[in-house]
Fold:
Amino acid sequence: MVSGLRPLRADDGQLLILDQTQLPYAEEWRWIATLDDAARAIRDMQVRGAPLIGITAAFGLALALRVQASDAALAAAAAALAATRPTAVNLRWALARMQARLAPLPPSMRADAAWDEAQFLAAEDAAANRAIGEHGLALLRPLAERRGTLRVMTHCNAGWLATGGYGTALAPVYAAHAAGIAVHVYASETRPRNQGLLTAWELARGDVPHTLIADNAAGHLMRAGKVDVAIVGADRIAANGDVANKIGTYLKALAAREAGIPFYVAAPRSTIDRDCPSGEAIPIEERDGEELRLVRGAFAYARVAERRTRVANPAFDVTPAALVGAIVTERGAVPPGELAGLFDPARRDG
Ligand code: MRU
Structure:
């Protein structure tokens, strides 16, 4: 297991993040000291991945309250953080939870309480990751028993880099690896931000065998019988089970369906947006066209498209529930049509 590896450290009241824009070329850590630092880190994707974005926002709110903790300041800081990225619902979920905890407190108590709550939120996410790993492993085990080595395809990065713990899509992979199951991961790139590189970097650190592939190689490999199962993360899951995830996920789901390969989504319940009826209502982030016109190398960017080239750069797509075999959460794996069963109003934790 990859215990001890964290993309964010919050010790002694200070916040340090691993700058993911520098990976896999350099491992650089940055201090986050203010609300603006936190907002910038999220917007510029120094931190990324739905759960980690939520956790960073929670700490960002705590930092803001050290400066001003009035009702107005709390609302303004939450609004500034919420505006950083639109698709990952964990951001809004974390901020709503922080506000619900902090608003009833007198302003003088808010900053410390906010820091504690952010720490708690991070620990809770790590625990959810661990449970997702176990529930996902139960799905992988029977597939592994039929083969010598289980070949798993994933997309983007949904590992420890993207969360408070072990990852979402990669948690079952780490659990299988730790259980002695032979796994081989196809880490699919995600043009334009090339986040398969992050997965390859992360898997290498965990000694998990893997192969990096271009986004467009996925269909070919599935059709050629080289993949046993596909597991991806999610940035927002609508109430009907439609899944928003990194752009290119939908094509993988289509290819998996065509090739008869199980396609699973792994995410904590904080990624399920019960107020969002279907994928059509999920806001899809459109990012700067320069991300596509430039290609990042180890030390520099290279221009591959003229600045005047018109670009569409949607960062996410929606995979319809019908293409998803199961959604793996900390409360178990369910078909996408049965998400409501994951929530219990009688429980304190919902
Ligand atoms: O744009 P990003 O990197 O913040 O995208 C989010 C993701 O990392 C992926 O879509 C991931 O599969 C889901 S979040 C664990």
